[in-house]
């Protein structure tokens, strides 16, 4: 990221894409952040994201157990992989203005969320509940890049 940013800044054809804040953004991303945010920044369409709830069966409310769950996978084995730092990373991307997350919107195609109930996090929460009074559910949402995120992506060569 650092190497592509000066190249963009020095190229007169695209130098306006190199916002001064981008250096600070790069400083505030660790290598795992940079690797994971890349997918959101490269996607022209929203990506499915969920939060997991423990809901009381009497419909008197719910507790959020896990925010910002994505379908992370081991690329070689194509199996779900966990990263307990993911929710904080996504909060950081939001803070930096690279992405927005909304749980009041979701993708129309429900099959885009079919991975959720197979996630280790969802299965673990499902095992640890009182089935007489509680159930585990998820709230569908979307994560998508902001205009700043789009410009940042362009400036660093994604």
Strand order in the largest sheet: 2-1-6-5
Give the name of the CATH architecture.
2-Layer Sandwich
* First-residue to last-residue Cα separation: 9 Å
Average pLDDT across residues? 86
How many helix segments?
A: 6
Query: What is the CATH domain class?
Result: Alpha Beta
Low-confidence stretches: 1-15
Q: In total, how many beta strands?
A: 6
Describe the structure.
This protein is an alpha+beta fold and 158 residues long. The chain has one domain (4-155): Translation Initiation Factor IF3 (2-Layer Sandwich). It is 34% helix and 24% strand. The chain has helices spanning 4-10, 21-27, 31-42, 86-96, 120-127, 147-155, and strands spanning 47-56, 62-69, 73-74, 79-80, 99-102, 134-145. A 4-stranded antiparallel sheet has the order 2-1-6-5. It has a two-stranded antiparallel ribbon with strand order 3-4. The longest helix is centred in the N-terminal third of the chain and has 12 residues, at 31-42. It is elongated and about 55 Å long. The termini are close together. Residues 1-15 have low confidence and may be disordered.
Could you outline the blueprint of secondary structure elements for this entry?
Blueprint: H1 4-10, H2 21-27, H3 31-42, E1 47-56, E2 62-69, E3 73-74, E4 79-80, H4 86-96, E5 99-102, H5 120-127, E6 134-145, H6 147-155
Antiparallel strand pairs: 1-2, 1-6, 3-4, 5-6
């Amino acid at each position: 990221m650092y190497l592509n940013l000066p190249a963009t800044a020095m190229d007169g054809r695209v130098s306006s894409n190199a916002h001064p804040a981008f250096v600070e953004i790069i400083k505030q991303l660790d290598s795992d952040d940079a690797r994971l945010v890349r997918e959101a920044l490269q996607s022209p369409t929203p990506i499915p994201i969920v939060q997991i709830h423990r809901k009381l069966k009497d419909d008197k409310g719910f507790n959020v157990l896990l925010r910002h769950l994505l379908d992370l996978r081991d690329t070689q084995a194509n199996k779900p992989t966990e990263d307990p730092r993911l929710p904080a990373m996504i909060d950081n991307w939001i803070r930096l203005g690279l992405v927005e997350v909304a749980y009041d919107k979701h993708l129309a195609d429900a099959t885009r969320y079919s991975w959720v109930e197979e996630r280790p996090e969802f299965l673990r929460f499902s095992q640890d509940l009182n089935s007489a009074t509680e159930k585990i559910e998820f709230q569908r949402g979307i994560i998508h890049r902001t205009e700043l995120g789009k410009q940042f992506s362009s400036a660093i060569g994604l």
